[in-house]
Amino acid sequence: MQRERVYRYFALGFLVLLAVLGLVLPTGARSLMIQIMIFGIFAMGYDVCLGYTAQCSLGHSLFFGSGAYACVLSVMHLKAGLLTALAISVGTGFVLAALLGPICVRLSEAYFVIVTAIIAAVFHLLAMDLVWLTGGDDGLCFSIPSLKLGFGDLSLYKPLANYYFVLFFMALTYFVLARILHAPLGKIFVAIRENPKRALFLGYNVTRYKLIAFVVSGMVAALAGGLYALTLRYCSADYMGFYWSVLPVVWCLIGGQGTLVGSWIGVALMSLFQYYVSAWFTYYLLLFGVLVLIILSVSRKGILGYIASRVR
Amino acid sequence: MPEWAITVLFLLMNGLIWGLIIALIALGLTLIFGVMGIVNMAHGDLYMLGAVLAFYLLPVSGSFWIALIAVPLITAVIAGPVERFILRPYEGHPAVTMIATVGISFILQQIALATYGGIPKKIADPVDFSFTVLGVSYPGYRLLVAAIAILIIVGIYLFLYRTNYGILIRASIQDRQMASAMGINVSSVLVTTFIIGSVLAAIAGVLAAPISQVFYLMGNDVGLLSFIVVIVGGLGSLGGTLIAALTLCSLEGVLASVLSPTQAKAAIFVVMIFVLMVRPRGLFGEREG
Question: What is the pLDDT of residues B174-216, one digit of tens each?
């Protein structure tokens, strides 16, 4: 249980740090932090799939992108409020994951990665094709309504409001996911990751629990997509692209898979890396590819996983 | 014959020829997976590499046929070390190999973008004859591509099933540990198989270069299609892959007469989903031991 405590202290410290940083950071750095927080949500959701049930999905961009589109389209066409739009995002993620999950999760490891990648790629092609709905490659710009709270309105056009809005969802996602993963359900996930055959012998329906993890992860990814679209006030078919499927894997590998919050380190490092490197090097993805190979060859435990394994 | 029947016939023919090219790529993919458990996401980019190299070699060598010989050699020189020094530690873990090859795929694409540029270019048909069937003129180069592809596929079959080295490769597919225990130099078998698979993709790239455009992202579409083919045929099954490639591509060709290209692709995707629902390991995939 020592490790769990490391993760928990790290998570709380990180959240407090973010809450303080929001007040002191300049605007440019703050918008970078907002991005990091949204990706942090995405990464936590992905870790439920990769780190807890050892399902390496390469199709999460589908959930991220469709979450973003669900949010944008419901604001544009249904005149939905912000929270409703985000709820629709999460609902879309749930429906897609619940429809596609049963096909994917019973496949063997190699089939699972390939089929999830194919599914995301086909939906990406469709999103590029249905320009009347999705805006294709150019995407859709939209204006967001202000958030109606009991005591007044909150406009996300104010950077500070946007920052704490996203931070709230990050903390919420963390506490919900941490609760789920500390509950017996989470223990079953770990049992399946460590040895699916034995978990089956113990009487657990492995496919069903893998499906649950997949769906939870898809919902969180869709939430992240919705928040990302709200923050940028923009959404394009590119959000379903392959790059967005590879990113979460890299985050989890850097930060530490199976730690839930370790991926935040990966997100922060990768975002800073992208922010600074892509500014002076056009072929940024080249370095990204080299980085992937280096990370794989150094350690697959990740930074937080390494730290936790040293704590005795 | 009515007009539409002729159209469908020609679309079918185009689809079959395209299917042969895809079959070359998918055979390499499935061979690499079968022997060393690598899911090669960079396979489509090896195809792109073949086409780009052909684009550069054509003006230098002056002959398409020299390019067709030289490109596989260059690809072999690149692919060998990649397997030995980068992918070897991850073999047998499909998910990890997949991420590693995604990295390689990004590297190849960006190198192509940096050197070759982001604009699609065309290569002229290397042979300049066409002939008329049923009142429609058909480019002869496509038939030549089909003939070369069939020759290569037959060659691969003979190599795997009629030579001693082929027996070594098939033994490694069946049981790598046992093969190693019997004194087979598995390491060299692995490098050779990876090179063969990569070379197949590169040859397909050279052959396809005059038919389609040469573009640094051209591997993505083809990679997607060959992955669908491999999944439907069954990972690791050579015969299944060949059948699936020809069937799916001719289906896509015919569907393209009524649907847009993306919709045709979506239709192929639906076929794949149905196959997976009925047979989770593909049509000809082997049962898990």
Answer: 888 888 888 888 888 999 999 999 999 999 999 998 888 888 8
β-strand partners of A149: A152
Whether A249 contacts chain B with CB within 8 A: yes
Q: In Å, how far are A116, A234, B270 from A110, measured between CA atoms?
A: 10, 35, 20
What is the ipTM, given to two decimal places?
0.88
By the 8 A CB rule, do B133 and B14 touch?
A: no
The whole-number pLDDT of residue A150 equals 65
* Region B218-232 average pLDDT: 90
Number of domains present in the structure of chain A: 1
Domain that holds residue B109: 17-218
The secondary structure element, H or E, covering residue B130 is strand B130-133
Report helix, strand or coil for A152. Answer: strand
pLDDT tens for B57-70 read: 888 887 888 888 99
Q: B250 in a domain, yes or no?
A: no
Tell me, yes or no, whether B282 lies in a domain.
no
Domain that holds residue A65: 29-250
∠ CA A7-A13-A16, nearest 5°, is 140
Does residue A165 sit within a domain? yes
> Which residues 69-98 in chain B show a CB within 8 A of chain A?
86, 89-90, 93-96, 98
pTM of the model: 0.90
B86:A291 CB<8 A? no
Kindly state the tokens that stand for B88. Answer: 């070897």
Write the CB contacts of B163 (distance below 8 Å, at least 6 apart in sequence): none
In a domain, A45, yes or no: yes
How many angstroms separate the CA atoms of A261 and A304, rounded?
8
pLDDT tens for residues A62-84? Answer: 999 999 999 999 998 888 888 89
Residue A305 covered by a domain:
no
